[in-house]
Design brief:
493 residues; alpha+beta; Cytochrome p450; 56% helix; globular; transmembrane helix
Length: 493
């Protein structure tokens, strides 16, 4: 009797049997849970464990737009252990960006992003909460205020330099992309560090390029966490080196600015002292970050550490260089493709500004059609075509299940070309935005109020770009003058 009991126990406790019991239990729990929750949205069928990781090369804005044609405006993919959702329709985007904004307000961060932003010490990737709100307040009211932007002489200096360069090469071929990238790079660099720091620009651009590569690099550990400690691709070593390089570069600049601040006590009160972004951020500097009541005075409500300052500077350098250069280059490209719109821009510049002076900041609000041109450019060619969000809790969209910590990709490229919302969606037509002036401010983007709700984030994208639109206006003036001169030359011949 005892031997039969021990034999039975040994069979039950057999490792293979135990594993089968555990697996069966997990399958049973999974089936019960699946019956209780809504289904996942439609999407391509994946492989066990890796899911749809074999489709990584298709996770571009164009690739996801093609998937939307087959699976609809909400598509589900599984990358390893990570659930990903592609949003390609205005109706679903409204659910994410407006109706359930608090659920989708977080920003996802890969291993590279978390490490290179000092564990989300910046504003772009910080989770929504008191820290993010107060960081935003600092940036909006101090660093990126309109008064601050208008005081940056570096913008005017660099634009004038580009105009002279283009004017001196009339009749010759020039690389417009290189010219515009150099313009936005120089403006952003000088605004961040001051003109005295130009000597280190090449080194900093090298650091930026390495950061950009690491941000976009495929890391299997982002999708299968068990590979994190193995580091099969050697990315962790590159991350450590890249951040050490950045620390060495920006720490020296911060130290120089702190010494300059100490020496300002000897400067007469009436003297004007040029300040840059680092100076503005150092006004909130403390050895330890500190948050108090959000209703408190701004100067006392938040204290920034060195890591915060360095992370914010990287946000600005990435957000103010390539993205802005891309928007400007596409705007010029579309104007050259559309002679009628180019002529209209020329006419507006001639009427508002004239041809005997440069565009000033005070002219910007009067250049209505040129602003419409920028909006139409952002619609067709968004500099950041995929807007990434992360769910803070389990939720549902259109009857489909979206678990906590899912990555949601808003495909601004696909939504901007949605034929249901935009007549002649593939056509560059800035005049579509003039409807706003005829219908009133409530019909922003030239759409009905209902469609405005669906596509409201275009207005936010435009406002983000607005701080650098003077560069676009000056570039438009250069193109306009060049075309006028060329037309006159042809007629004379």
């Amino acid at each position: 009797m005892e031997s039969s009991i021990s034999q039975t126990l040994s069979q039950v406790l057999d490792p293979t049997t135990g594993i089968l019991i555990v697996v069966s239990l997990f399958i049973f729990i999974g089936l019960i849970t699946r019956r209780r929750r809504p289904p996942y949205p439609p999407g391509p069928r994946g492989w066990p464990i890796i899911g749809n990781m074999s489709m990584m090369d298709q996770l571009t804005h164009r690739g996801l737009a093609n998937l939307a044609k087959k699976y609809g405006g909400l598509c589900h993919l599984r990358m390893g252990f990570l659930h990903m959702y592609a949003v390609s329709s205005p109706d679903v985007a409204k659910q994410v960006l407006q109706v359930q904004d608090s659920v989708f307000s977080n920003r996802p961060a890969t291993i590279a992003i978390s490490y290179l932003t000092y564990d989300r010490a910046d504003m772009a990737f910080a989770h929504y909460g008191p820290f993010w709100r107060q960081m935003r307040k600092v940036c909006v009211m101090k660093v990126f205020s309109r008064k601050r932007a208008e005081s940056w002489a570096s913008v005017r200096d660099e634009v004038d330099k580009m105009i002279r360069s283009v004017s001196s090469n009339v009749g010759k071929s020039i690389n417009v992309g290189e010219q515009i990238f150099a313009l936005t790079r120089n403006i952003t660099y000088r605004a961040a560090f001051g003109s005295a720091c130009e000597k280190g620009q090449d080194e900093f651009i090298r650091i930026l390029q390495e950061f950009s590569k690491l941000f976009g690099a495929f890391n299997v550990a982002d999708f299968i966490p068990y590979f994190g400690w193995i580091d099969p691709q050697g990315i962790n070593k590159r991350l450590v080196k890249a951040r050490n390089d950045l620390d060495g570069f920006i720490d020296d600049i911060i130290d120089e600015h702190m010494k300059k601040k100490e020496n300002q006590n000897s400067v007469d009160a009436g003297d004007v002292v040029d300040t840059d972004m680092v100076d503005d951020l150092l006004a909130f500097y403390s050895e330890e970050a500190k948050l108090v009541s959000e209703t408190a005075d701004l100067q006392n409500s938040i204290k920034l550490t060195r890591d915060n300052i360095k992370a914010i500077i990287m946000d600005v350098m990435f957000g103010g260089t390539e993205t802005v250069a891309s928007a400007i280059e596409w705007a010029l490209t579309e104007l050259l493709r559309s002679p009628e719109d180019l002529k209209r821009v020329q006419q507006e510049l001639a009427e508002v500004v004239g041809l005997d002076r440069r565009v000033e900041e005070s002219d910007i609000e009067k250049l209505t059609f040129l602003k419409c041109t920028l909006k139409e450019t952002l619609r067709l060619h968004p500099p950041i075509p995929l807007l990434l969000h992360e769910t803070a809790e389990d939720t549902e969209i259109d009857g489909y299940f979206v678990p906590k910590k899912s990555r949601v990709m808003i495909n601004a490229f696909a939504i901007g070309r949605d034929p249901k919302s935009w007549p002649d969606a593939e056509t560059f037509r800035p005049s579509r935005f003039l409807t706003r002036l005829r219908l009133g401010a409530t019909r922003t983007l030239g759409l009905t109020p209902k469609r405005l709700d669906r596509l409201g984030f275009w207005n936010r994208a435009y406002q983000i770009s607005k701080g650098v639109t003077s560069s676009l206006y000056h570039s438009g003036l250069v193109v306009g003058r060049a075309r006028v001169c060329n037309s006159g030359y042809t007629r004379l011949n």
